[in-house]
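Project channel, design review

CF: Before we commit to the Humisphaera borealis constructs, I'd like one complete example in the thread so the newer folks can see what an input/output pair looks like. Taking STAS domain-containing protein.
RD: sounds good, go ahead.
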Amino acid sequence: MPRSARGETTAMSVGTLSLVAKPGRFSHRDAEALCGQIRASRAPTVIVDFRETEDATTAAFAQLVLLRRELLREGRDLRLKGLRSRAASIWRISRLSMVLPLQ
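CF: and here is what came back for STAS domain-containing protein:
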């Protein structure tokens, strides 16, 4: 079973892979590691939960945008949930809702 960016076992249900983003600050390096896990899975839908993440860099979000484009070409999708604090502000200010939607 896949593991989340922070090493916890993730839940799989009805073709959906759910991963929990790193608590605290989600960086470009964290996003790269998460993207590797997502690419290795074959789940048609991937949900990344940011409920424990307070901050995320624009570079980290850029990695997720590029990954989502790749997944969409494969007939898969990536969604976010639980955005809060500064991570939510960066997502909103950067107008990422069209390219990196919430669940």
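RD: helpful, thanks. The chain has a mean pLDDT of 91.
CF: The longest strand covers residues 16-20.
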